[in-house]
Amino acid sequence: MSEKAFEQQFGELTPELQVVYRNIFRRRDVRREFSGEVVDRERLMRVLAAAHAAPSVGLSQPWDFHVIQDPARLDSFAEHVGHRREEFAAKLVGERRETFNPIRIEGIVDSGTGVVVTYDPTRGGKNILGRDTIDDTGLMSVALAIQNMWLAATAEGLGMGWVSFYHEDFLADFVGAKAPVRPVAWLCLGPVTELAKERDLERFGWRKGLPLEQVVHWE
Ligand SMILES: Cc1cc2nc3c(=O)[nH]c(=O)nc-3n(C[C@H](O)[C@H](O)[C@H](O)COP(=O)(O)O)c2cc1C
């Protein structure tokens, strides 16, 4: 959102409220802007505390956070993702292929830290209050923890990028997760030089975001 548009819609709010909205609109999916430093333990733990404060169905808190900072392990995951990128690129034709080529889909090594978030559907026992009719609510809870992380990271001056170009069984083995526990995301997390104003996929012409009016439906 441009500064002008922000001022128009949120400029009249109290400074406290503006900080919240600013953080939401400043958040970016980060690939390119990692500074190369590694996040310090205190900041990392604050971001993970924000994740762990997320709402969860039946208070099941079905998430675990696996922190990976060993450069050799980061390299090894980046190599796996590189192959998945090639597979995806091979499916694209014409303009889509040209447009995809320069887009970075990961910042695994540059970020210095990977956080693999896993989902444990057995957490909280058999009868999870609220998951009885919609099993996906467990996975939804994990996504909310990730969004909390993303916003906390943004407020901390960190960048975060969600990588999903991987085979689930590879990542499960990588962090030693045994079924039914599933990896849900690899998150690149680290200090940044800046946060881009524009979304990468818009910047590179892959896809444009939709206007709010198109997705709000009254009555
Ligand atoms: C579930 C999920 C998976 C994603 N996986 C990838 C990915 O593998 N590679 C990538 O470059 N971006 C990935 N993204 C980032 C999206 O492309 C990005 O959020 C979207 O373009 C909007 O940009 P913004 O987050 O900066 O607003 C993922 C985002 C989500 C929510």
From TrEMBL:
It holds the Pfam family Nitroreductase. InterPro entries: BluB, Nitroreductase, Nitroreductase-like, Nitroreductase/BluB. It comes from the Bacteria. Residues 25-190 form the Nitroreductase domain. GO terms for molecular function: oxidoreductase activity. Keywords: Flavoprotein, FMN, Oxidoreductase. This is Cob(II)yrinic acid a,c-diamide reductase. It comes from Corynebacterium lactis RW2-5.
